[in-house]
Description:
This protein has 163 residues and is mainly alpha-helical.
Amino acid sequence: MSDMLIRTLMERLEELINAQYKIAGLMLSHETKGLDFSVSTALDVLYINLEMLDLTSDIIGMMSSVSDEYIKKYAINLGAEALSWSGFMLTHIEKSSPIFIEYIEVENEPVTSRIKNLAYLLENLGSKLDPFSFEEIIRTIDMVSKAIKYQVYMAKKSYETME
Length: 163
């Protein structure tokens, strides 16, 4: 049962990674003249990244109950890729974003650095991670996600009061 659930979550994470890939392609194709996103598009990208963070946390949280070693390795690699994309995209949408991503910190470290460090950890340690390491990664991803969600919530409230 848990193998089926993790596969479903991984499929959704793959869809979100593909969306990030397309957005990055759009950004790179307009690199010479610059591509400014609208605030609503930047929010959409933020929501995609938040969902990716939450899915990555859920998938890593299920690792102990997954029996198939291939699924475990693939899930870890997919999680590392999702975190890498999040670190990349959050940095590149900041000028269009209604929140100041560079000033969001988790445990005295910028969220983008935290995300990149988590991606590095997953990528390099992979399935050698012990359950305590997985718990620490999940805890950190959840803190990053909550910090960004709070900033997005505050930005939305600010926009609502301006209307």
